[in-house]
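Hi D.,

Good news: the full-assembly prediction came through. Inputs first.
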Amino acid sequence: MAKYLLLKHYRGAPSPVNDVSMDRWTPEEVSAHMQFMDDFATRLQADGEFVDGQALAPTGAWVRHDGEGRPPVVDGPFAETKDLIAGWMVIDVDTWERAVELAGELSAAPGAGGRPIHEWLEVRPFYGVPATITE
Amino acid sequence: MIDDVRALVPQVIGVLVRRGADFAMAEDAVQEALVEALRVWPVDPPREPRAWLVTVAWRRFLDATRSDVARRRREEAVAEQEPEPGPVPGTDDTLQLYALCAHPSLSPSAAVALTLRAVGGLTTRQIAAAYLVPEATMAQRISRAKRTVAGVRLDRPGDVGVVLRVLYLVFNEGYSGDVDLAAEAIRLTRQLRAAVDHPEVAGLLALMLLHHARRGARTAPDGSLMPLAQQDRSRWDRDLVTEGTGILQAALARDGLGEYQAQAAVAALHADAPTAEETDWVQVVEWYDELLRLTAGSPVVALNRAVAVGEADGPRAGLAALAAVPATVPRWTAVEAYLVEQDGDLPRATELYVQAAARAGNAAERDHLTRQAARLRAG
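Then the structure:
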């Protein structure tokens, strides 16, 4: 009973096996990919393991505080950023092994030529609550 | 009234099952009746809550059976039986129901969810909120769990051990969202103890009460973790300590020692010490030796034992005990940091606290360990 974040990257992950960027896929391949992602989320929900899933636009900016009374500093778009997150799925599963198993399945989403992308996904444990009984 | 209704849920499921409903449908029907009760009772309380629930749940069950064409044959077999008037027979099948919900074929998360709904009488929404998952996900988890145990017969005596493990899990999750899981686990363990005479059921209840007694002292006003040694012991709930200790002593006298009684004995020794310095660490170590035997050398127990050895015989002895524990056990580095600090090697302890913080399993422990490193750096 722990939550894990499965993190997908636009950039920054090691190269996948089927390394063709999405803008070079056929429209059918794009649709098949999206369908796979939807089906995966639906199946996780039916398993009672789904918490959340969201996709992120590649646009945006870095923002930081610039001192009292001054507007925040905005730096963007992300032309220089090496690490760009594309989206995430949050799962609630019994074990780390199960989280890895699911990430492996998600990484098999079809890409160019309808073949699995084998893309690298980041799997990160959430912090849980402190146990009541610790001694 | 609302708390009372929850205590009635397992009994009412039992009534429906004895009248011929299968567990999954009975549980659904009772959940619907429960949701209805939560809506209606505040404005129109029934004279006989249990009879009310049985009537409404039975009606829901019949409706569900009738609407299910594929089950028509079963309907004919079951619906003919009119509910018997008057009081419901009081056969106690509490343990069977607990055991079904904790069945070994279920994953821990499924067993916990099913227990909280069918035994605890919580709604799916409340359970989902407690575990911070969407209601739809929790609903699926529960219906899958019910399908998994569909073939399990309810008339066999259940295994107390698996039930206690699930209750322990619920308690240890503490509380988040709007449901107090620790209090809920205590309620369910009390309910089980009223139905089953078993020293380990008493042992687990004692363990929970003794830990629950410290709840108010476990966190500082700013929400940070307060380690046992620094807790304000005047804030421990003495009534809970007294009750927990009494239950434990009665259980120990029955000569059926188990791991929950042994863990409770450790908690009782802490509860007994007016100050941290007065803790009887030698006895604590003895109980951990016992626990190691009872758990076939559990590494988690061995880690806690190393802390106790450090207090009883000095940090060097503690570190020697720690060396025999696999370093993969959570909190291993945190224990090492503490023992190294006690031993006086502050630079090394600082480094270890930093490493331990990076390996913490929750934010409160991470912050606590980071503060320890900061404290040593500040000198």
